[in-house]
Amino acid sequence: MGLTVLATAVTVALITKYARTAGAYGEVTTLEETRATAESVLRSDLDGAGFNLTRPSAPFPGKENVVFLTNADYSSAAAGTIQKVTNNSAVAFGAQAVSSGISLWSWTPATICRYCSAAIQGSDGTYDVINTYADQFGTGIIYIFESRSGYVASSAGLGVAIANHVPGDSYQIGIEAPNQTLQNRFVRYYRVRSGVRTILYTSQNPVPAAPQYPFVSINNAGESISSISMIGAPIEARTNNQTEFAHLPFVGGTQLTSPVTIAGNSVIVLSGDRSTDISSALSIFSSNSTQIDLKTPARGSYNVGDTILVIDYGNTDPANLVSPASAACVVSSVANPDSVTTRLTVTRARQATPATGGLWSSDSDHAHTFTPSETVVVKLSSPVTYTVSTDSRLVRVDGYRVNTVAFNCRQFTVAQTGASPAQSFSVTAALAAEGVETANDTTNESRSTIEFTSTPRAMNLASNQMN
Fold this sequence. Notes:
Elements: H1 2-47, E1 54-55, E2 63-65, E3 74-75, E4 82-84, E5 91-93, E6 96-98, E7 103-109, E8 113-121, E9 127-134, E10 140-146, E11 150-154, E12 160-161, E13 170-176, E14 186-193, E15 196-202, E16 213-218, E17 224-232, E18 235-237, E19 244-245, E20 250-251, E21 254-255, E22 260-263, E23 266-269, E24 279-280, E25 291-295, E26 307-312, E27 325-338, E28 341-348, E29 359-360, H2 363-366, E30 375-379, E31 384-388, E32 394-398, E33 401-406, E34 409-416, E35 425-432, E36 447-454
Parallel strand pairs: 11-12
Antiparallel strand pairs: 1-19, 2-17, 3-4, 4-17, 5-16, 6-18, 7-13, 7-17, 8-9, 8-16, 9-10, 10-11, 13-14, 14-15, 20-21, 20-29, 22-23, 23-31, 24-30, 25-28, 26-27, 26-30, 27-28, 31-32, 32-33, 34-35, 35-36
């Protein structure tokens, strides 16, 4: 009997140990599955933030004085002027580019400017240059150089013969439209002397690939080039492009300041509906409007119950200053007056009568007059909020739907780690196992950590040139 009791006790102990080991293994496995699922959902929401709610920096006007990128060998006190400050061999690149179409690039070398070059370079690395040499003894030489062919014209016996450079001459390089003689865009070089413009040379090579941008090269310290300008459409910044955000509505009591808005221990994510394109407005939408006509989107459609955001990005023109505004509305009916127009009848989403997910716009936004030329309409996805509940669950609120992403959430933080034009968000979450078999206190419990950085594409748009 004693042996039987002993054998039974040993067997029970072994079975209990096995059960606890198996239970602990199951808890840890479940924890890792939860971590992977939670990270996937978080990444998807954050990476998609701001879809259709941002736009790239607007292009510049059709003519710009060239601004140069920072270069220790050059000084540029004002746009359109650059001076060499060292005798180092160095090139200064322009900060603007022409992304398509025809263009014209102009400049004037200083009276004494020995080996002073100005050029346009394409994104394929090819470039076209006019180089002048003017010294204190009255020497004036000009060379036209193309990276594909070498020297193609000069006043020094290289290539096609052209007249000498004279102090005061200005030069232009044009990318020009096809004509009766040339079937494709082409590069042409000009001199402007005493106000008279003459053709120096017409290139036989293809145009450098767009976007094209300028550069200058000056050999000697103290010498300079001025009146450096570019004409084209669109002209866009090559670096430091800023993503422009729509003025955003409220969610509950929180004014959204960004498609990813961090509010205490919660984060709210807003984006446009991924299946529906932005629509341009075709009619005025003012404080008493209940309808708005818009261009029927090429992809997607509008339905009763959809939440839309009517957006005016505003402008900063001092002569016609317009503050940005947006009006959140709920679609109550949809009609199509013709094949290219969609007419929406809407009700205003206000604090007392919000749209799905508690989304609403202020009275001042609803009082804004949205003119067709400045207004777009975006179909919204429901706002998504992540927060930790009082019972330690990581909760995802999608509109009015509340879902538990993970149990036993010990930490959850979202922090912005970058600023425009490179905005990113660092996400950290610590999840604990159930603890029945692995541990029964927070000191010894098994944990798994979510750590990643999200860089939402819509919030990091560069200029149109870059997309």
